[in-house]
Design a protein that fits this description.
Distance between the termini: 38 Å
Helix content: 25-40%
Strand content: 5-15%
Structural class: alpha/beta
Shape: globular
CATH topology: TIM Barrel
Number of strands: 10
Order of helices and strands: HEHHEEEHEHEHEHHEHEHE
Strand order of the largest sheet: 1-2-5-6-7-8-9-10
Number of domains: 1
Length: about 290
C-alpha cells in the first residue's frame, strides 16, 4: 500500500480527551522559553495532557531533528541537525524542577553524526537533573547507538555508558515485528535492538528493561506474540503496546486499527509470558504511566 492509499476510518476509541488547557500551556510555556523539546509535543502524543497532570513528561534531547527517517515518526528528519546546546542538560533540569516532575523520561533523536551517538549526553542530562532534583526518578528511552568502524563493540560501550548511570528503567523500542522492520524503522535493525536490551541486563541485571510496539502496520497476532517472546528471551521486563496513528500523508498508512478488546487480550498474553509491567491499549505510548512501574 502506498502513501496515497485511503486510510481506514478512525474509530471512536482513538479520539482522546485533550486534558486541562492549564496543564498543557504551563509545560508548553516552560519548554518554549528554554528552547528545549519534549517528544510529547514533537510527536503530538494523545496522552500528553494526562501525563502533565500526573507530573510526568518525556524530554527530547539533542534537538528536534533526527538523522534517520523512520516511516512512522513525526519528528523532523535531516542529515545536518543543529549543534548540541551545551546548556540543554541544565535547561532540562530546571524545567523538571519548575514543573515538579516526579518521574522523567529522557529520549532523543538519533544523532548518527555524533562520535558517541549521544550516549554521553544522556548521562550529562541525568547528572544535571539529579543535582537539581535528586528525588526525581529518571527513565531513559534511547536509540540503538549504532555506528562506527567497530559498530557492535562501540554500541556496547555506549549502552554501558548510559547503563552505568543507573536509570530507573532502560527503554529501547523494537517498534514493530521483524518482518516489517525495513519499511517502518529505516536505519534500525531488530537484532540490534534486542542486543541493546540484552546488553543492559548483562551490565546490570537490577535495572528494569522495557520495549514497545506500535500495532497497525500489517502485523499478525502470531507475529506480535513471537516478538513478545523474543523480548522475554533477552529478559525484557516491561512492554507497551499501542496503536500506530498516521501523522501525515507523508508517513506510512495505517493498515489496521486493533480494537480495545484485542489490545486487552494481547496484554494478558504478555503478562502470561512473564512481563512484570504491561501497558496495552490503543492510546498507549512508550512512556504512558511509566512512573507507575
Amino acid at each position: 500500500m502506498t502513501s496515497t492509499s485511503p486510510r481506514p476510518t478512525l474509530p471512536p476509541w482513538l479520539r482522546p480527551g485533550l486534558g486541562k488547557a492549564s496543564d498543557l500551556s504551563t509545560v508548553q510555556r516552560i519548554i518554549k522559553q528554554r528552547g528545549i523539546h519534549t517528544i510529547c509535543e514533537e510527536g503530538r502524543c494523545p496522552n500528553r495532557g494526562e501525563c502533565y497532570a500526573n507530573h510526568t513528561a518525556t524530554f527530547l534531547l539533542m534537538g528536534p531533528t533526527c538523522t534517520r527517517a523512520c516511516g512512522f515518526c513525526q519528528v523532523d528528519k535531516g542529515h545536518a541537525p543543529m549543534p548540541l546546546d551545551p546548556a540543554e542538560p541544565q535547561k532540562v533540569a530546571e524545567s523538571v524542577a519548575l514543573l515538579g516532575l516526579r518521574y522523567v523520561v529522557l529520549t532523543a533523536v538519533a544523532r548518527d553524526d555524533l562520535p558517541d551517538k549521544g550516549a554521553g549526553w544522556f548521562v550529562a542530562t541525568m547528572t544535571a537533573i539529579r543535582d537539581r532534583v535528586p528525588n526525581t526518578q529518571i527513565e531513559v528511552l534511547t536509540p540503538d547507538f549504532w555506528g562506527g568502524d567497530h559498530a557492535a563493540e562501540q554500541q556496547r560501550q555506549r549502552v554501558t555508558t548510559v547503563t552505568q548511570a543507573r536509570p530507573a528503567c532502560y527503554n529501547h523500542n523494537v517498534e514493530t515485528v521483524p518482518r516489517l522492520q525495513g519499511p517502518v524503522r529505516r536505519g534500525g535493525r531488530y537484532e540490534r535492538s534486542l542486543a541493546v536490551l540484552q546488553q543492559v541486563k548483562a551490565i546490570d541485571p537490577s535495572i528494569p528493561t522495557k520495549s514497545g510496539l506500535m500495532l497497525g502496520h500489517g502485523e499478525t497476532e502470531a507475529e506480535v506474540l513471537a516478538t513478545l517472546a523474543d523480548l522475554r528471551s533477552v529478559n525484557c521486563d516491561r512492554v507497551t503496546l499501542g496503536q500506530y496513528m498516521r501523522p501525515s500523508l507523508d508517513h506510512l498508512p495505517v493498515q489496521r486499527y486493533w480494537t480495545p478488546e484485542e489490545f486487552e487480550s494481547l496484554g494478558e498474553q504478555a503478562r502470561n509470558l512473564g512481563f512484570s509491567h504491561v501497558r496495552s491499549g490503543p492510546l498507549v505510548r512508550s512512556s504512558y504511566h511509566a512512573g507507575e512501574a
